[in-house]
Amino acid sequence: MRIEDLPPRLQAQVRAQLAGSQKSGVRSQNAEVRKPSLAPTGGRKRKGPNKTEVDYQRRHLRGLDARFEAVTFRMANGHRYTPDWVVFTDGRPSQCHECKGGYALGSQQRARLAFDQVRVEFPGLVWVWAVRVGGRWTVDRGQ
């Protein structure tokens, strides 16, 4: 792709970046110009639990072999589901816990749908849905 193929606004941005890289000593003879990607990056970047998940572990999973996002389930519809906490008993998963804050976001509704679906497809485990509202946990251990 050539710079001239871009819209004028992007041409100006690219030329400004190239000018800046030349000042810093970076060679730009073979610089490749790419259009900005609008696609999601895919994959999660998070390495550990957030504050809500840590609070749930501290209050409800103390003394258990609970591991953060240790297992991912592949469902019949092709989707995947990874619970926040998986409790292992004798080296095998026995309980799966999903904990949410008190926000009623679309993502929470999608998570609940996936949770209910995986609960149906993998009935041999104990499935726990927990929501924290105002510092208090509401825990649903229904099966």
Principal-axes geometry comes out as elongated
**Which CATH architecture of the largest domain?**
3-Layer(aba) Sandwich
The main β sheet shows up as: 5 strands, mixed
Integer average pLDDT: 82
Name the helix and strand elements from N-terminus to C-terminus, one letter apiece: HHEEEEEHEE
Strand content: 15-25%
Q: Level of helix content?
A: 25-40%
Q: How many DSSP H or I helices?
A: 3
- Overall CATH class of the largest domain: Alpha Beta
Unreliable sequence segments: 25-39
CATH topology of the largest domain: Trna Endonuclease, Chain: A, domain 1
Number of domains: 2
Total number of strands = 7
Q: Label the structural class.
A: alpha+beta
What is the CA–CA distance across the termini?
A: 56 Å
Q: Strand order, biggest sheet?
A: 1-4-5-6-7
Rg, please? 23 Å
Write structural notes for this entry:
The chain has helices at residues 8-23, 51-60, 106-121, and strands at residues 65-68, 73-74, 80-81, 85-89, 92-100, 126-133, 136-140. With 143 residues, it is α+β, with helices and mostly antiparallel strands. The protein folds into 2 domains: 1-39, no CATH class; 51-140, Trna Endonuclease, Chain: A, domain 1, CATH 3.40.1350. Strand 4 and strand 5 (92-100) form a beta hairpin. The longest helix has 16 residues, at 8-23. It is elongated and about 60 Å long.
